[in-house]
Write a structure and sequence with these properties.
The complex is a heterodimer of chains A (775) and B (181). Chain A is mainly β. In chain A, 14% of the residues lie in helices and 36% in strands. Chain A is globular. In chain A, 50% of the residues are buried. In chain B, 77% of the residues lie in helices and 0% in strands. Chain B is built from ten helices and no strands. The chains are: A mainly beta (775), B mainly alpha (181).
């Protein structure tokens, strides 16, 4: 008897389910299934049987599983109670700790909360308690009562508090008794050495106090340097760069306020006087063709300026050696980097054992105030970390024509909370800012400041963001996101067996997003609460092509299924309206879009949660949806309530207006156009509810071929490599797709749109009678 | 009877017994699903426990559009994939088939099979039944079953394969009988 390939494949499938298949058998099975439809169907049957047996086993294990769940929950509850006890313990101890903080020193460090994080650790750095000292590494939390020591001239440590204040220790320095109690504020004892403190404004009545053997320096918010024992060991010198510091001599209680630009020395027998301090503005210039090798973090403050003056012919080189360029305290200077090859700038993120990011070590970490200016252009980032900007005052930024290569060390993970954006910008500056012409090949761009232009009107200004967790998330009002290409890669590999919470595009209220090509993601577009128009959205994975609140204007977009590179999960509609209208929201407007399900998506065109509202649904084409009788738990329909809700007749009144739409899904087993309704109107009888859907005046659920010019693509038509090389541009891609989805000769879409949008308006994203939109 | 929404509201406030009542009906499905992905009886039980813990800790992150059992399955999927990464190679086509098989939590075909499978397993011949029970219900690896039955692993694989086919036939016959009566 000969065994057929199908028999062998089915036996291998049985072995696979038993967890005991050999690699070559698995490879042969995969190859066979790819070609044999009968075995593909057989596998569905076998796995359904496996589910039934598995659930039967699960029922037999019910008590044991329940017991395990109960014990797991008990552990969670116990951990919650412990956390609560710690909070109560801290609160109670505050009463004791005022004036007696040494109590904390006697506590084991594991029992007290961390107050700050060690953000830089170079050379010999020790974390100390009253009775011990152990080596300290970047990212380590420093707890109440602990101290820090740096040893040797080259050693350096930076301790960063959650509010942004920081202490920098250099050389042989000992800082003890670190404390940050809610009732008392930040405290530290500088036993010896040099401490530079940058202190953000502290809460009223809780100044930061650094004590030395000779004096107390009381700080509300400033930048200062405190030096103990620099010469004879019996003096404390205070230098104030910004703000004002009260220095009180311990010996006799004498005190004085030392202002910015002054210093004072607390020493026995010397008058306590403030004297002028020469503060030099640092200017760093790297001329064209030169190299800058960082030996430590390059720190800008005050009005410091840095210029890297590369040219197209003579690039500069910046070797970071895992150090960073960052600001300290208020910085209102200028940073200009042009034509620079940047390597190893910034360091890897550090995680706590629980997987939380504790230290990021950005390549550029700049907080800009007043009229500071940041320009980074025509530069490449190799094996470097991320860029983090905070722009306040009227500060500006221009980040243009840079490349961050795929060898970037920006951390990207299958879990979203462990992933870091390549470029992040926040701050209150409303000055115009620019992010354009960049090539980002790992991670994404997150901008929450206002008035950014991301991309631009020409192809040269397009940002190309391609790679793991690629995307643009622009949360600021007045921001324009135009003409970008985003392709989020989500390969399933042993390193990335799954991807979680992958969105690729977001814009907020008051923002405009247009002419972008956006591919891949679990929610490819997640919340566009302003204007979202003339975009191409492609390659759906789990969930939605677009997920939104009951707001926003979504129009003239082409949504296509593409070829999803992901197993089907909990997919839901092409557009899912998640929330009921919140204050000031009147419902989403969805008009003149073309939805092409490519014959592969058994999902609704529009799906809405209870209470969610679509204000206007008009002039859209819903094309080639292979609808089956059932959609997860209930019957299928094109415009419908969430999948957990059964369909009713009429459907819930969650459409404000729905007319002039076209439906055509020849392969669908079920053709139901509307399972949501317009209040007070009857489908196909009343204007405003499908009366003018195609064919005009037809029966409910009637459909008509839109006769696109075509040919309709089954997969995305362009290659990333061609896009990276510039062979294919964003405008070329958009023009090609718009041409394919233009109504062809004899198309019923032509001039059949809502006359309220202008006489001769076509249905769908592309109007045959009008010039294509710019880009 | 307590409804899911009430239990969910209470569980979100930290009520562990309410959460336990909410999750208990889902446990057999979660176990079967996790096992189908990580292909390991014991790891699947760990996955179920871990899934429940993660869900309890993160209930406030449950999307408003999400169905509770689907959400649990999504968590279990992540956990099971992690477990599988340590245990086995995986086949993409099988994974897709698993997703299809579990998409409908109340799939009538599964409920019908589950009802009849117990009798069908008992009707298997002693040797095949032994392999099915050892492997599925006691979580024994095929090599362990082979040692116990004093036979080779490939013989156990054959018995299991035959067992699956016989069960399919048995369920099919009984369904026809049920329908005709």
């Amino acid at each position: 008897m000969t065994i057929s390939a199908c028999d062998r494949a089915r036996e291998a499938m049985s072995d696979y389910l038993a967890g005991d298949v050999l690699p070559d058998e698995l490879a042969a099975l995969e190859a066979h299934v790819a070609e044999c439809a009968a075995c593909g169907a057989e596998i569905d049957r076998v796995i359904l049987q496996d589910r039934a047996i598995g659930e039967l086993v699960g029922i037999s294990l019910a008590e044991s599983l329940k017991g395990r769940v109960r014990s797991g929950l008990a552990k969670v509850q116990a951990a919650r109670r412990l956390r609560l006890r710690r909070i109560l313990f801290v609160a109670a101890t505050i009463l004791v700790a005022v004036g007696a903080s040494a109590v904390w020193m006697q506590l084991p460090s594991g029992e007290v909360p961390a107050i700050a994080t060690l953000d830089v650790s170079r050379g010999e750095v020790l974390l100390t308690t009253k009775s011990s000292a152990s080596p300290a590494a970047r990212g380590m939390p420093v707890a109440e009562g602990q101290g820090l020591q740096t040893r040797g001239a080259e050693s350096r440590a930076v301790l960063r508090y959650p509010d942004g204040s920081e202490f920098e220790l250099r050389g042989d320095t000992t800082l003890d008794h670190l404390s940050d109690l809610p009732a008392a504020g930040k405290r530290a004892f500088l036993a010896r050495g040099t401490l530079r403190a940058t202190v953000v404004p502290q809460p009223a009545g809780r100044p930061l106090v650094v004590t030395s053997p000779q004096a107390d320096a009381k700080v509300v918010g400033t930048r200062l340097r405190l030096i103990v024992g620099a010469k004879s060991g019996d003096e404390t010198r205070l230098e104030v760069e910004t703000g004002k510091v009260r220095l009180a001599r311990t010996l006799d209680g004498a005190s004085l306020d030392v202002s910015a630009g002054f210093f004072a020395v607390a020493r026995k027998g010397t008058p306590l006087l403030a004297q002028p301090l020469p503060i030099a503005v640092q200017t760093i210039v790297v001329e064209a063709g030169d190299t800058l090798d960082l030996k430590e973090d390059l720190v800008l403050s005050g009005a410091d300026t840095m210029e890297v003056r590369g040219t197209a012919e003579k690039h500069c080189t910046l070797r970071g050696n895992r150090h960073r360029i960052r600001t300290s305290g208020e910085w209102s200077g200028k940073l200009r980097i042009s034509h620079c090859d940047i390597a190893e700038l910034g360091d890897l993120v550090v995680f706590t054992p629980q997987g939380r990011i504790t230290s990021q070590a950005h390549a550029l970490e700049l907080t800009a105030a007043k009229d500071a200016e940041i320009v980074v252009e025509q530069s490449t980032f190799h094996t470097s970390s991320s860029v983090s900007l905070r722009l306040d005052g009227t500060s500006t930024a221009r980040f243009a024509d840079n490349t961050s290569s795929a060898d970037s060390i920006v951390w990207v993970d299958k879990a979203v909370e462990k992933s870091v954006p390549f470029f992040a910008a926040t701050g209150t500056s409303i000055a115009p800012k620019v992010f354009r012409g960049n090539r980002i090949y790992k991670s994404n761009v997150q901008i929450s400041g206002k008035n950014w232009t991301i991309g631009g009107a020409t192809d040269a200004e397009s940002n190309l963001i391609i790679g793991y967790r690629a995307g643009i998330f622009a949360y600021g009002e007045g921001t324009v996101v135009r003409g970008n290409y985003l392709h989020c890669l989500m390969p399933r590999t042993p390193e990335y067996p799954y991807w979680s919470q992958v969105a690729t595009f977001t814009t907020a209220k008051g923002a405009l997003a247009e002419h972008n090509v956006i591919r891949d993601g679990e929610w490819i577009v997640q919340f566009v609460e302003g204007e979202f128009r003339n975009n191409l959205i492609c390659d759906i994975n789990d969930h939605n092509l677009l997920r939104n609140s009951s707001t926003g204007r979504i129009h003239h977009n082409i949504f296509v299924a593409g070829r999803p590179d992901h197993p089907p999960g909990s997919q839901s509609g092409c557009i899912f309206i998640v929330y009921a209208p919140r204050e000031g929201e009147t419902g989403a407007e969805i008009f003149n879009n073309t939805f092409d399900a490519g014959g592969v998506l058994n999902i609704p065109g529009i799906e809405a949660n209870p209470g969610a509202l679509v204000k206007s649904l008009r002039n859209n084409v819903f094309f080639n949806f292979p609808h089956q009788e059932k959609y997860l738990r209930s019957a299928q329909a094109m415009i419908r309530p969430i999948w957990t809700e059964p369909l009713t007749e009429p459907g819930p009144a969650q459409l404000g207006y729905a007319d002039y739409n076209a439906f055509y899904s020849p392969a669908a087993k079920v053709k139901k156009n509307y399972a949501l309704s317009v209040a007070g109107k009857t489908e196909r009888r009343d204007a405003g509810f499908a009366l003018n859907d195609l064919p005009r005046g037809g029966a409910p659920n009637e459909q008509v071929d839109p006769k696109f010019k075509g040919p309709i693509p089954t997969a995305f038509l362009f290659q990333d490599e061609d896009i990276k090389s510039g062979k294919v541009t964003v405008s070329k891609m958009l023009a090609h797709y718009r041409d394919l989805y233009t109504p062809g000769p004899g198309s019923p879409l032509i001039d059949a749109g809502d006359p309220a949008d202008g006489e001769g308006t076509d249905i769908g994203a592309v109007d045959a009678g009008k010039p294509a939109p710019h880009k | 009877m307590e409804n899911e929404l009430d239990l969910l509201t209470r569980a979100k406030k930290g009520d562990a017994p309410a959460f336990e009542r909410l999750v208990t009906p889902q446990l057999p499905m979660l176990f079967a699903y996790s096992r189908a992905i990580c292909l390991d009886f014991h790891a699947a039980q760990d996955v179920v426990q871990e899934t429940a813990i993660i869900a309890f800790r993160n209930l406030n992150h449950l999307f408003p559009e999400a169905d509770f059992s689907t959400w649990l399955r999504a968590i279990a999927r992540r956990q099971a994939l992690e477990a599988r990464r340590k245990l086995h190679r995986f086949a993409r086509f099988a994974e897709e088939a698993v997703e299809r098989a579990y998409q409908d939590p109340d799939a009538p075909a599964v409920l019908a099979q589950r009802k009849l499978l117990g009798d069908c397993i008992r009707a298997l011949g002693e040797r095949v039944q032994g392999v099915v029970e050892e492997h599925y219900f006691r979580g024994s690896r095929l090599s362990e079953v082979a040692t116990r039955l004093k036979t080779s692993v490939s013989a156990v694989k054959q018995l299991l394969y035959r067992g699956r086919k016989m069960l399919e036939e048995c369920v099919k016959k009984r369904l026809i009988t049920e329908q005709s009566s």
